[in-house]
Amino acid sequence: xxxxxxxxxxxxxxxxxxxxxxxxxxxxxxxxxxxxxxxxxxxxxxxxxxxxxxxxxxxxxxxxxxxxxxxxxxxxxxxxxxxxxxxxxxxxxxxxxxxxxxxxxxxxxxxxxxxxxxxxxxxxxxxxxxxxxxxxxxxxxxxxxxxxxxxxxxxxxxxxxxxxxxxxxxxxxxxxxxxxxxxxxxxxxxxxxxxxxxxxxxxxxxxxxxxxxxxxxxxxxxxx
Length: 224
Ligand code: SF4
Description:
5 strands; globular; binds iron/sulfur cluster
């Protein structure tokens, strides 16, 4: 017998917050997060700042999918810089760190620092990110970076809500299928592309082709 999907919980911002700036890594991860926030009547905007994504063609594909979904719902989309040189400068010496290691903490820190700065300068009192919804990410690592970034600004809070809860992780996949999002096959940076390809080759699988037709039956292999 099919189980009934859990109904959505009406969410409220922490610390009495009124406006949320949501850092988005990609459409597959932010689709469910956005729908949860919309269903909760929370005022928010999307902040797309992901200079980690390599190559540029992949970055453009992920961003375009995210822009289209935000436009469909009338959600403001803030397209921040693609300052790859700054990202590589911070990644120097971390090129061979594994995923979920210290290079990823740096990567989250950098993106959330910029999100927090924008929030501070534009009247948002809460920030959060879609990054934590992926089961391939360590939520404690994502949250630690977010809390650290927000702590630089008085009155700014990082919302550590677990987006995977109450069916969120499953809805993320369902929404991606329904919307036909571009589905990435690696986390995002050149090093994750290198390592994912090496793993695929070791398993006898073909290398990743940037811009391959999305496979709406499959969840993203990771999120940026
Ligand atoms: S593996 Fe992903 S989270 Fe880690 S540094 Fe690369 S893009 Fe950032």
